[in-house]
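Contributing new records

If you add data, match the layout below exactly. Sequence lines come first and carry their own label; structure lines follow with theirs. Keep one chain per record. Anything else will be rejected by the validation script.
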Amino acid sequence: MLQAICRALGKRILDFCAASGRLTLLFIATLRRLKDADMKEVVRQMALLGADSLPIVLMTIMCTGMVFSVQTAKEFVRLGAASTVGGIVAIAMARELVPVLVGVVVAGRIGAAIAAELGTMKVTEQIDALRVMAANPISFLVVPRFLAVVLMMPVLVIFANFIGNIGGWIVAHYYAGIGTFTYENSIRTLAEFYDVFGGMVKSCFFGAIIAIVGCYKGLNAPNGAEGVGLATTASVVLSIILIFIFNYFLSIVIYV
């Protein structure tokens, strides 16, 4: 019994190390082929993967800003610290909430779409056809999607920060009775450009994670429709886990 458990555990560890190695190799190969990127395809992917994600990102972040303001505004007013609510909300949103939640939303929408698309192409042997025509699948499929997600993530973060603070102001003003000038002045006094810039840097890393994991899972999807579904699910789960892990280390490097 113990031997079987150790054997199963050892197999899991070896599979994890092998998958991590293949994922890292795909990332390195993608970086090496960035110079071969077709910019027309990159722009098309930016529109498909980035611009179309804006509505759901804005709705998610606005609700998050409103909820965060609900949890802080009343208590800060009771403690006589109403003049700090806007800055606290803005800093929390810019540093942590916006980049992480945008990453999670994009991972659920875009990471799944990338994995499903490439997985379908693998199952229908379209990727093999590219190799037969001497077209490198990484240059043709992975690089445009990688650049599109990495470039669009900071843009989504900028819009999300703006709408998130509007949501926070709505609640602070109409629920806690904090004046507009007080809220805005708090943001100008406490928040700095570096808070927003750090969140944008984080989002670039999260975009790279989402794109590489989605492409990796799609390119290695098991055969059949069920395999595509499994690859799509695994892409979303792994992307979100890595986003939370990397967020911790990036927070230490950027803000501490």
